[in-house]
């Protein structure tokens, strides 16, 4: 039998569960059956809203947006996202295409992008001066990821970047190398790792070549960049981010990871439109 503790966060669902679990003499069996049907419908709608769209395709691929961007169709979502000195960037400041990644360092899909596509993107587009790459933090949207870990890793990254951009990108590579990637979208999610500790963050920083480890430790303990992360998360909400990662390329919203060839088409289209 359902209990009130199973109501989760839905007020309407709680109300229905109470009516089923604590019937009055006037409640008929027909009403109970109807209430159960309503529960099933509500749960189904909630599951579809959370896991539908790109996840139903077996990978986080946003076909309508990316296809529109490649074809030059104006139906692709156009958004304006500010970039300032508080953001972590890679590439020339005056590059014709700005590519913003709303992500975190516990996302399996961003780990997949980092391991499979980022090196080529850095070589072909960032180093050539075509793309300026910008990282903005967004909390995990997947229940299998720990938001506290994601925030700790993001704060550490900001503290490292404040000392050395080179060390930061080595840190990103090392952290994401340990995140399981969704090689089989139908497989069960990998279990969450143990909580990230200060000692682990120090190990990452040392391996990345951070010059001032004591300053780094002070930075993470003081949560120096917590406000910046909160501002990024608010930007993600305003932008309409529903997938991690979500990219904004040349002002166009691209939700999820797309194949490398398709990503290149989007970048080239944005560059040619300048």
Describe the protein in words.
Helices cover 50% and strands 9% of the residues. With 274 residues, the protein is an alpha+beta fold. It folds into 2 domains: 4-51; 58-272, Glutaredoxin. Strands 1-3-2-4-5 form a 5-stranded mixed β-sheet, sandwiched between helices. The protein is globular and about 45 Å long. Residues 1-28 and 45-75 have low confidence and may be disordered.
Query: How many independent structural domains?
Result: 2
Helices, by number, come to 10
CATH class of the largest domain: Alpha Beta
Indicate the mean pLDDT. Answer: 77
Q: Quick one: how many beta strands?
A: 5
Strand fraction: 5-15%
- CA radius of gyration: 22 Å
| Shape by Cα distribution | globular
Low-confidence stretches: 1-28, 45-75
**For the record, what is the CATH homologous superfamily label of the largest domain?**
Glutaredoxin
Q: Biggest sheet, in brief? A: 5 strands, mixed
Helix content range of the residues, please? 40-55%
End-to-end Cα distance, whole Å, is 62 Å
Secondary-structure element series = HHHEEHEHHHHHEEH
- What is the second-level CATH architecture of the largest domain? 3-Layer(aba) Sandwich
SS-based class: alpha+beta
């Amino acid at each position: 039998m359902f209990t009130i503790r199973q109501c989760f966060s839905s007020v309407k669902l709680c109300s229905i569960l109470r009516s089923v679990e604590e019937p009055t003499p006037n409640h008929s069996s027909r009403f109970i059956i109807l209430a159960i049907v309503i529960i099933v419908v509500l749960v189904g709608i909630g599951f579809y809203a959370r896991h539908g769209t790109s996840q139903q395709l077996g990978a986080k691929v946003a076909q309508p947006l990316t296809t529109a961007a490649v074809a030059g169709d104006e139906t692709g979502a156009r958004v304006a996202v500010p970039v300032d000195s508080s953001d972590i960037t890679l590439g020339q400041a005056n590059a014709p295409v700005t590519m913003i990644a709303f992500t975190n360092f516990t996302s399996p899909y961003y780990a997949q992008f980092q391991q499979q596509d980022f090196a080529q993107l850095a070589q072909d587009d960032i180093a050539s001066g075509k793309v300026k790459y910008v990282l903005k933090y967004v909390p995990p949207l997947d229940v299998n990821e720990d938001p506290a870990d994601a925030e700790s890793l993001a704060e550490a990254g900001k503290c490292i970047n404040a000392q050395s951009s080179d060390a930061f990108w080595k840190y990103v590579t090392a952290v994401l190398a340990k995140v399981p990637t969704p090689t089989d979208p139908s497989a069960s999610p990998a279990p969450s790792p143990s909580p990230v500790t200060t000692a682990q963050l120090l190990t990452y920083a040392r391996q990345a070549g951070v010059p001032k480890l004591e300053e780094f430790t002070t930075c993470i303990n003081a949560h120096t960049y917590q406000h910046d992360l909160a501002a990024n998360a608010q930007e993600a909400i305003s932008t309409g981010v529903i997938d991690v990662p979500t990219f904004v390329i040349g002002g166009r919203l691209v939700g999820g990871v797309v194949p490398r060839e398709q990503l290149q088409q989007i970048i080239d289209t944005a560059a040619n439109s300048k």
